[in-house]
Amino acid sequence: MNVVRRNQLLYFVVAIALGVIGYRGLTKPVTAPPGSPLAARLLAAQYVGQSQGADPVRVNEEPVIQAGTATVKTVFGTNQECTVKLVRSHDETRYGWLVERVACGQAN
Length: 108
Description:
Blueprint: H1 3-26, H2 37-52, E1 57-58, E2 64-66, E3 69-76, E4 80-88, E5 97-106
Antiparallel strand pairs: 1-3, 2-3, 3-4, 4-5
């Protein structure tokens, strides 16, 4: 086997291996500790996506957390915005938050 052919085979094998590793890394679900700001962002994006039929839903700002409530602003579609108010819940184990209310409208 000549050097060029061997190098091509090596590059091919490395590319396949890196592709498999990268694919596995991308398919892992994002998790966050219940009650954390990241969990509030994930819940707000998921709730707005399901209730408004929107995909993707972006959360560009950190949630505003005061005592047991969090306010999260989400953006989707063309100039649409929803403000989601969440309350901390010890019974809800996945996110640690429950949706209290949602207000949607045109983004400014």
